[in-house]
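tool_call: predict_structure(chain=1)
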Amino acid sequence: MKPTALLLFLLLFSLAMQAQNPPGKTTLFDAGWRFHRGGAQGAEKAGFDDAKWQPVDLPHDWSIEDLPGTSSPFHPDAISQTSGGFTTGGTGWYRKTFVVPAAQKGQRVQLQFDGIYMNAEVWLNGQSMGRHPYGYTSFWYDVTDKVKFGESNVVAVEVKNEGANSRWYSGSGIYRHVWLTVQGPVHIEQWGTYLTTPDITATSAQVKAETRVLNQSAQPAQLTLVTRLRNPKGKEVARTESKQTIAAGAAATVAQTLAVKSPERWSVDKPALYTALTEVYQGQQLLDQQETPFGIRTISFDAQNGFRLNGQAMKLKGGCFHHDNGPLGAKAYDRAEERKIELLKASGYNAIRCSHNPPSPALLAACDRLGMLVIDEAFDQWREAKNPFDYHLYFDRWWQQDVASMVLRDRNHPSIILWSLGNEIPERGKPEGAKTARELADFIRTLDTSRPITAAVNGLAPDKDPYFAELDVAGYNYAAGGDHHQKDIYAQDHARLPNRVMYGSETYPLEAFDSWMKTLDHPYVIGDFVWTAFDYIGEASIGWLGYWQYQNFYPWNLAFCGDIDICGWKRPQSYYRDALWQPNQVSLFVKPPTPSFPLNLTKEEWSKWEWRDVLADWNWPGQENKPLTVEVYSSCEQVELQLNGKSLGTKPTNRSTQYTATWTVPYQPGELKAIGRNGNKQVGTAELRTAAQPTRLALTADRASIKANSQDLSYITVELLDSKGVRHPKAESALKFELSGPGTIVGVGNANPTSTESYQRPQRNAWQGRALVVVKSGEKAGKMTLRATAEGLPAAEVTIVAR
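tool_result:
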């Protein structure tokens, strides 16, 4: 055959193959795995017998499961101790068998893991694909040369969460999604789409699209790259195309500029999301396509105007949180991540800090949709250890890959406003710390220049200036207190360095008033991030027993410092934050006559992650006519307190009273009521009623209709109510649950920080008169009915429909 005829044949054959293979398809790879806890010699081999292993669907976390032979995930001898909430890690194995159809031979096959904690090694058909130490970054492998098309393939994953390696509950295993992509040899590179909006006016927005296309075929490819932009309603509003020739085995970045007329801006109040549809053509043949949500918005930071979103100055009402989902452990179901953001939005938050690691893609997608600003953080340590087996062991070899994973994966999210290099890095006060910060910051700027760079810094003193000098925005941990006693460290540093932009990257709940007032008073302080927005497993009891921590703190397993508890219910400090952040708020709490839990008499003075010991409870039998302290948190001008309709007086609630009014009230059962007024106008009320003995259970689902996709969740609150519908705040009845229909109970909880009950079994003791059941849909549509029973009470039910 002549060379020209051969080339023509190869070209026609290539086009014929592409015609058979539509553009790349990514499918969720979560179902049908098998799991083994412990060692399993030879389990990487394709022929290994895993028939006796536990069937699991992902996401999965073995540390939240009951320890073998027990009905609890907690043990006082766990290596994790207080840091991990007395949960157990260890080694685990996962295996899955799958088939890639024979018709897809010639395609590229890619396996992506959104997150595995930690030290994962992946094999395909007995051949190692590689290791990935960091537990929080996404990673992927091109497995084309190891896949047997049209035959069974076995992927095996060994996970090693060994030794003390985390300061919080990490979970163990493949706790985020896995994806399988089959695509043509010519395709958009992984995380190869990059969208920015450098120039925006009221009439037009410039959108820059950079697309990296990879040619893994044996021939040069003459391509047309088409980018279309759709507005939030799905209407196409811009289109452009570019021609590009890419040599065999090479990649090229195609830069395009599009104009959007009368753009809708993404903001926290109106999170308008556009979509870029990127298509790669060879002639008329569509080889690949990808949809990327993005937002049109501007951000700016300076010491005079603070933080501005779309030109509007705003303060960041922020919170930090760890990645766990309470009763679900570390399992990152999309709905669990979304619900977290919904609850924070409902409590007035407009910003979160992902501490101290990149979050799941689902969490960021929820922030984009719901309008929540994000600080995306890389690490909790660099070269110097905080724990003997933590990431410091891997930093030098892996930091570049892990930072690239965070930035390339996440840079199109409009919700992200800052990249954080890390948290409380041990070498932050040394020259080598500043040098490493420069290396990391410079590297991030090669991947994304559209956001400033920050880090969270503790031990605030001038020796940190060289480190701060490498950052664009300075995160101050515990500026209002902690390991120094300056009156206003923000003002002192501003006097020294007037152009430094600062924010409270971590602040104590107990110092909420002082932290927020300084944020309001200083334009150069752009926000305040409480530790923490959500309670979490691990750092057990820092919100009560505090520091230093010891093994005898068991059975404490929750931090007990979050505004919102692990079930999603607001704690007293969250209502106080309402008074700081929102108008016309009133809430009412009572100090119990004896402490809610035994106190730690040796707690350090600087350890202030607790809130005052107060409860939404007016049930105090045996305390009749004895004085109880009552606290009202309010942003109204004044508050009147009434007991059984009788006024106990009116008090101001404003900045001078720290939005708090306190009464001493001789206890009488009945109704305690706080009435908030502005002038003579009543604008808010809060009530506490004495509950009689519970007569019934009430079940309330956060969503009565969910998707039948084996992933969607409904959160059901179970309450013990008296005949008048008042929840009994001291009821701790044993509850049993039964689910019928196409779904499963995947978690139960009650937010009691010292309960060591199972999170998995269909039962839970109530705490403060309630418990939570999390129900997951199956693949089939239909009705699910959750039935709850407690001794001496009629059974109660709620129905959820999976569609």
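agent: The CA atoms of residues 82 and 549 lie 7 Å apart. Proceeding to next step.
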